[in-house]
Amino acid sequence: MVSANGMHSRAAVTVVPSLLSCDHSNLLSAVQPILSDFSVPWMHFDAIDGLFAPAYGFCPQSLLDLRSAIKRQLNRCPKFAVHLMVQQPNVLWSKFAESGAEEIVLHLESPCEIVPLARKIESSGIRCGLAINPETPFAKCAPLLRHFSSLLVLAVNPGFGGQDTIPGTVEKIIEAAGHREKSHRHYDIAIDGGIHFKNAELFANAGADFIVSGSAIFCNGCQRNAYEQLTNILRGTREGVGSRHRRPQHSASLE
Ligand code: DX5
Ligand code: ZN
User: Fold this and answer.
1) I want to staple 57 with a disulfide (CB 3.0 to 4.6 A). Which of 46, 117, 131, 165 is the partner?
2) Listed residues: CB within 5 A of ion ligand 2
3) Per the domain annotation, does 172 fall within a domain?
């Protein structure tokens, strides 16, 4: 859509709950309060192999089971983006695809040929995203973005929920939004890691379309209220690309 000032406007910013910090023994109870009351388009599911990052995440079977349980309970199910923090995404992606993933996110830093893999994933009818670690400059992934449906900027070191964002991440989002505009590409921009009530707006105004958030939603007592609060904060942050490039004052202290 092109707005009155000639700039492309984009859809509203979406809050994407990340499940890594939930009680893994009862994921349905963790997500049910949110899914019952809100229409949540996307959920974020972290797969970690202990090698790419020093932690472990979810396996394909947990995705399959959780999706079935949600469907049984609510008769509908959000889409799942699977964030592969693994050394062999080429082996694992199809297992998550068979378990119902609607998006597979590959890391630029994974030791495998990610462009042919992205082609394979997209030609199987699943969206493919590209993720970059905090130490990877945006310039390194820019030439590859034409092969991907989304860019996920990781604002923390991979592997754990509940960390603070690494300074410089907002600038990376601004850079990505500028590149997208100039290059006329259509990839979505997601921010993941350390996003909470005080800094979500900053990242949305910088250009993020998807705000992935884990512990702010699931570790604050009432996940329903936390999700609603984050959604309310982000309502109205997106008026057009021009407005997203303005950096709010005091942003560094909020990162
Ligand atoms: C970190 C994961 C994130 C994590 C986010 O490696 O990719 O998705 O779950 O959790 P918070 O929002 O707690 O940083
Ligand atoms: Zn993640």
Assistant:
1) 46
2) 46, 83, 192
3) yes
